């Protein structure tokens, strides 16, 4: 997604590759930390044992830090060819999404969820930090480096919000409805550890209805973006993949349709 968005906004292929790898390194590092015993204490990720299970906690932490260090280096390299204003905006945006206003804040709230109100406002606030921040980087950062208009940035921010919340809700549903083998990672952790889960907070049916509304609003926003930036049409395929994954989780496409009408 990062690579295609970068190309759509005029970045060179080498810049696009650097940025794509950098953001996946940031993402993977966040997963390594998230799986640690002091966080979610997970044992499986993507169908394989978690890194700390194989190489120890110290190995997992050092690996995550190595990913982050390399990711920043690649980001600087990708930004080097951009206009100076775009460079400054992009680097500030990275700090905003990954720092105490973004990913770190979301993870902190997640860890302290037991002392917070257990409602959908809290779970969505945490999702905005943990998940939406990474989707924002994925969609908006290439556009900033490519000198996109303010209107396009606004539309991409909205898509990132709706898709980010949707991805998190799908993940929450997996934790409740799927087995570890189906989800490809350790499930049933949220209730056990008293961590935020929208499906647990609202109930499965209400969560699916809310998710469907997010997707519908995201679709409208995507259509508006494609009017001004047709080269972003590949996002339609990713939207279809999200729909397919959701159906595989809930096992009932009609529930999604009902949610869209709600």
Which runs of at least 5 residues are low in confidence (pLDDT < 50)? 252-262
Give the number of DSSP strands.
2
Q: What is the N-to-C succession of helices and strands?
A: HHEEHHHHHHHHHHH
- Rounded mean pLDDT score: 88
CA-based shape: globular
CATH topology title: Farnesyl Diphosphate Synthase
- Write out the strand line-up for the largest beta sheet, numbering strands in chain order: 1-2
Topology overview:
Elements lengths: L1 H7 L4 H23 L8 E2 L2 E2 L1 H29 L4 H15 L4 H9 L8 H26 L4 H28 L2 H4 L5 H5 L4 H5 L1 H25 L6 H16 L2 H9 L1
Antiparallel strand pairs: 1-2
Helix pairs in contact: 1-2, 1-6, 2-3, 2-6, 4-6, 5-6, 6-7, 7-11, 7-12, 11-13
Q: What report would you give on this structure?
A:
- With 262 residues, this protein is an all-alpha fold.
- The chain has a single domain, classed as Farnesyl Diphosphate Synthase (Orthogonal Bundle).
- Helix content is 77%, strand content 2%.
- It has a two-stranded antiparallel sheet.
- The radius of gyration is 18 Å and the shape is globular.
């Amino acid at each position: 997604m990062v690579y295609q968005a970068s190309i759509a906004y005029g970045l060179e292929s080498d810049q696009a590759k650097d940025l794509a790898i950098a953001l996946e390194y940031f993402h993977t590092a966040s997963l390594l930390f998230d799986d640690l015993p002091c966080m979610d204490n997970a044992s499986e990720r993507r169908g394989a044992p978690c890194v700390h299970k194989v190489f120890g906690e110290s190995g997992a932490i050092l690996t995550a830090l190595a990913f982050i260090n390399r990711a920043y280096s690649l980001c600087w390299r990708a930004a080097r060819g951009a206009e100076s204003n775009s460079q400054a905006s992009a680097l500030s945006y990275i700090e905003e999404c990954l720092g105490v206003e973004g990913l770190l804040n979301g993870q902190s709230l997640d860890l302290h969820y037991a002392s917070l109100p257990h409602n959908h406002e809290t779970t969505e606030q945490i999702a905005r930090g943990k998940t939406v921040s990474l989707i924002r980087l994925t969609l908006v950062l290439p556009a900033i480096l490519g000198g996109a208009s303010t209107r396009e940035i606004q539309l991409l921010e909205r898509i990132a919000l709706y898709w980010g919340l949707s991805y998190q809700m799908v993940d929450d549903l997996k934790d409740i409805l799927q087995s570890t083998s189906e989800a490809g990672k350790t499930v049933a952790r949220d209730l056990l550890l008293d961590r935020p889960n929208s499906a647990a907070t609202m109930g499965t049916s209400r969560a699916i209805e809310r998710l469907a509304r997010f997707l519908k609003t995201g679709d409208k926003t995507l259509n508006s973006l494609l009017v001004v930036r047709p080269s972003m049409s590949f996002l339609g395929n990713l939207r279809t993949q999200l729909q397919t994954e959701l159906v595989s989780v809930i096992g009932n496409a009609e529930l999604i349709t009902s949610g869209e009408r709600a």
